[in-house]
Every structure is written in structure tokens, then in C-alpha cells.
Give the backbone structure.
Amino acid sequence: PQLSICDCYGACDGGDHMTILKKVKENLFLAIVALVYIAMFIINPTMGAASVKNSGYYIKEMLMIMPVIFILTALLDMWVPKEKIMRYLGKEAKAKGVFLSFVVGSISAGPIYAAFPMCVMLHKKGASIRNIIIILSSWAVIKVPMLLNEAKFLGPKFMAIRWVLTVIAITIFSWIAAKIIKDEDLPGEVLTQPGLHINRDACMGCTLCAKNYPEVFEMENKKAVTKPYEGLDLDMDKLESAIKSCPVKAISYNEGGEI
């Protein structure tokens, strides 16, 4: 049977629509954000322009800060053994772990989103849910630079009372949250090939693993996956380099010994 030009056009047009819908589903959050910006520009152009300007400022800030955070997180991952993390921040650390978590969160620098890669690394090495919540909460609301500015503008008494009440609240809520949130609720490792694990929930799509070892790693929907490597003589140096290059430590290899 012969196809008319209209039939061909319709088939192509349908395929294009399917491709667009697939892309939208893969980037649903970005699509919603884009629609919100468009709506703001239509309703209030001044507000829309201000929103875009503010968003650009924060994106620029993230691009400047996050690479440094990823490097520091990778260095901490290499320098601090898993046994020490479990001893001082694990479930058995108890009061010592709570105190140390408050200290870590309070003396840390940078915006709160900088804490997330570090907390992923700490949880992978054995830090408890409760202590991670304390670190994040302390980082957000009782950092030392914040307290100093608070005392300067609102007075030492205000700062001290607010600090005490906040510490009490964080301690209580972290205990409650740890009873509700379990370790398995956090993003876990996904077995993609025998012995090679990729935590796709933690993967940020940086493509470093694919660049370091393209014969084994590739990107799929902006997440790292492994290619079938049965029969491939793995280059352990390249594999180790790919694993260590991951800024959020989402890759591990356990066959014949852990890297």
C-alpha cells in the first residue's frame, strides 16, 4: 500500500510529539518551573524579570560553590575511614555523636545545599539518620557566622535564648525523625552489573565516570549506568579512577575486593 504525503507527515508529527512528551516527562520539574516563569511574565512582567534575575544569581552562586564542596567531600571520603564515621557519628555514638553533629553543622560554611553531598557521603560511611538530621539542621539555623550576626543585630540575649531553644527542638525532632525514617528509605545502591553498584538516586549526572572509563560507564536519562562488560578485561586503574572521580561517591565495586 502507498502512503500519502499527509500520512507520512502525520506519522512524523506524531513521532515528534512523542519525543517532546518523553523529554517533558524526563524533565518534569524543569518544565513546571519554566511554566511558572512564563505565567509570571504574563501576569506581572516586572515580577517575572525579578524572578529570573534572582534565579540567575543563585545558579551562579551554586556553580561557584558546589565544585569546591564536591572536592572537599571527596577528600573527606578518602581521608576519613568508615570506622571513624561509624564510631563518632553512627548509631552507637549516642550522646557523643549528637554533640559532634551539632559541632560539625555549626562550624560549617556555605549555604545549606552544600551540606547535601557531604551528608550522602557520611550516611554511606555509617552515619546515623539522626546525626545527619542534626548536621543539616545546625547548618541551616545555628551556624557560628549566623549567630554572630544575630547577636550583632538582635542582641546577645535574643541570640542565646533562640540558640538554646533551637538546639532543644533539633534534638527532639531528630530523635522523632530517626524513628520514622529508616536507612533503607534513603537512596540506596542499585546493582547494575555483577559486583558494580551505582546509586542512581545519588548520581548527579556529572558524567565524570563516563569520561574516565567510557568502555564501562555511560549516561542514560542524565544518570550514570553501566554497559554490559561481561568478557571485558576490566582496567582496574581506570575503574578506580572513575569511582574516585564521582563527587557524591555513588559508585562502588565489590567483586574481588572493594575499591
Summary: The CA atoms of residues 207 and 219 lie 7 Å apart. The chain has a mean pLDDT of 81. The radius of gyration is 24 Å.
